[in-house]
Amino acid sequence: MSDQSSSPSLTAGSRGSCSPAITRPTWLLSTITDFDERMKAIGTTNSGEDGPNHTFAQLAESYYGKRPQLLSLLQDLYNSYVALCNRYINALAKRDGANCAELESLDLGEHGEIEYSEVHSSLSYQKPYLSSEVGTTELGVKNVENDRSMEESYKKIQLLENLLEILESERMIREGQNADLEIQVAALVEQNQMLSNEKELMKCRVSEQAKSAWKTREEGCVEELTSKIRELEKRVLELEKENKEYCRKIMKREMELENEDEDEGRSEISFGCFRFGKLKRGSRRRADVKKMNIFKDGH
């Protein structure tokens, strides 16, 4: 930048008669110093982050942190270069105007034709130089623009590559997580199948226990009914035995009464005054027969 800024002045000085040595201006020195400090700061930061212990995430974070500084530095360089080109073009235009003023102030005398031919030859010599300088300036501006677009494209490509690496790493992580989830799902499905089988087994056991309890209950009821039936049968046998005994006693009593009646009938002929005793015994016998009939009906 300093060489390009000084080249027009040096050229102009060489074409003049005797001009003093041109030094760099203060604003140019301050600008160069500022750029040097910023470049050193960025270079120091980069040298501290190039170690093998830094991870990709740290490098990406550092890149995104320095990106505004780089863009700002590049923008300042571009603006300074464009300003330098404009000043260079303005200097060339001023020099061209000064040459034209010198031509107008020339005195046409005896050697007017010779002086005019010399000035014309001088201008004809300077026109290709001016056109080449302007073309070089335009080419420099275009090169700067192309370099800037190329730099931006390169940064975009790097950014896309970094994003692609991040996405690839995330994809690998997601694949690992999906594999773990598939294993967990398979384990849960197997556990669910085991629980279903255990549930069916428990249902079968509960059904068997219910059947066993019902069977036990039925057996208990049957045994209880059987014991009650046996008790009733025993009671019936006892009642039948008592009934038979009672009937036997009644029959015995009837036989005794009949025998007594026969004896009384035989003695009634000779003892007519005892008729009343016979009637009394006959009424007693009929009462006993009536009781026996009532007992038979009840059983």
From TrEMBL:
Which keywords belong to this entry?
Answer: Coiled coil
- Recorded GO MF terms: actin binding
Residues forming the NAB domain are 6-95
Q: Is the keyword Coiled coil assigned to this protein?
A: yes
Pfam families the UniProt entry points to: KIP1
Q: Which residues form a coiled coil?
A: 150-249
The Swiss-Prot or TrEMBL record describes its family as follows: Belongs to the NET family.
Report the protein name in the record.
NAB domain-containing protein
User: What organism is listed for this UniProt entry?
Assistant: Trapa natans (Water chestnut)
